[in-house]
Amino acid sequence: MRTVVLTMKASVIEMFLVLLVTGVHSNKETSKKIKRPKFTVPQINCDVKAGKIINPEFIVKCPAGCQDPKFHVYGTDVYASYSSVCGAAVHSGVLDNSGGKILVRKVAGLSGYKGSYSNGVQSLSLPRWRESFIVLESKPKKGVTYPSALTYSSSKSPAAQAGETTKAYQRPPIPATTAQPVTLMQLLAVTVAVATPTILPRPSPSAASTTSIRRPEPVGHRSQEMDLWSTTTYTSSQNRPGADPGRVPKEELSTQSLEPVSLGDPNCKIDLSFLIDGSTSIGKRRFRIQKQLLAGVAQALDIGPAGPLMGVVQYGDNPATHFNLKTHMNSRDLKTAIEKITQRGGLSNVGRAISFVTKNFFSKANGNRSSAPNVVVVMVDGWPTDKVEEASRLARESGINIFFITIEGAAENEKQYVVEPNFANKAVCRTNGFYSFHVQSWFGLHKTLQPLVKRVCDTDRLACSKTCLNSADIGFVIDGSSSVGTGNFRTVLQFVTNLTKEFEISDTDTRVGAVQYTYEQRLEFGFDQYSSKPDILNAIKRVGYWSGGTSTGAAINFALEQLFKKSKPNKRKLMILITDGRSYDDVRIPAMAAHLKGVITYAIGVAWAAQEELEVIATHPARDHSFFVDEFDNLYQYVPRIIQNICTEFNSQPRN
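The chain above was modelled as a monomer; its predicted structure follows.
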């Protein structure tokens, strides 16, 4: 009997060794066969809506032509999921009409979406929607695997019909089981009373699934299996644009329940750059206090794509960007990144840093949004080691709102070392105290947190957001008399076009209107008729030559009544008059009326125009506002000079 038992034990051990070797070999074979599939970017059509796609974050390729208005977009910066994905990408500026790759990230729904015109796409407003998305450049996060095939809420999605890479929305199949290693204890627990060969239990499917290799999913998102997503039903007709009451598209009935993501405070939508002092003289302790202020600001601002965005540049000898506006899209990630910033050392070259930010930081590639004011907060320990006035002037003229926080200024015996006395007042947007903070001690820096946040978010007072190119109502008064001729008239219209191209055109930025005159006057289009640059340029192109006499005085009066009477109170009023001859009527009284009404008049004369009449029409000093051109073909040469004079005059306004 003892011999039999020993023989059976030996057989069991032998069986275990065979199975162990078999399992190892099987696992090796399996690991050889499993290769990470090569990532291919799925292609979608222009009409595919974000709500159709179940994936919470994905990269796709859009075709050309998605600027077409038939591909509806709802919202600005953050879009309702009922929007065309590719249409939203064009509207946001991530793509142009030629198409390309984009990264799409789903976020929570909003209580309202505001429409706007941007990059040739007119987005629409929407009261509310249950899910949103943002569009970013297609730069994958490190360690994140994006789907090569999109998951759709319906197998009959438009994308699938178009033939791009898709897969139906269904429960993923249970992974195939593989041979599992069996322990010696499991084998010895098997009953040996039966002399027949023992069959080991096969691993259950659930056990197999825990050991099978799973493809990594994007960080921060849940699994995409159906039972992890909630279903929501909507009955309000407001939930879908153009929908019948109580009717909701089938593809919108079931969606992901996303993790709560802050979209930021919409009442403080600014693009903010902190310029922090990393000079050697500041020391490690004070550098750490500076970072604590930044972290506090990041928390107080509620960072997000629909609200404020923030980047950090450190300066010493030379400036360097730690992260730009689109690197971190919430306060938590931003605070973590701030904590990791280390001091660079060197001098305190603030002027060089401001120039760097003006030229490099506020670009579309770095996440700058045309709809948000640009703000720079400069922190200075003591005083700069270079001059800041000229660099700051250029920044202000670029529309950047500069705030200064100076800590522990120069003592009486140190003032001889200050390169530029009163540097903060020479740098900020206004010298009324709103843009500058002086802190006596680093230990009192925390007291500036709340007032600083309040001021940078007060967008109505961010005066430097208005520049010479985005804050005017420009009325062109064009001579259409017989002496001009058809060919020269087209040259004049090209001159008007070239000037218009230099300005930022929208309903809230610069607006353009035009009057043509002979003996009579005609309003070609008013300030409120067109709100985009392409529409304005097309309207100029369509102006037809009239022919007749030359009554310039009457034309000025007509422009004051029909154009500038409807100008907005906060706009600079600019009249640009082009004529080729002497007026048949008096211009003095109409010109004086224009000046009294605050209209800045530029008079451009061609060929037979009277120089003294141009000087009467033009705003004082005439040398800056009147120009004479000997031939129509030379008009284009004066475009840069006129723009320069307009901007010089704008920037010479008092800053108090």
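Residues 2-33 form the longest helix (32 residues).
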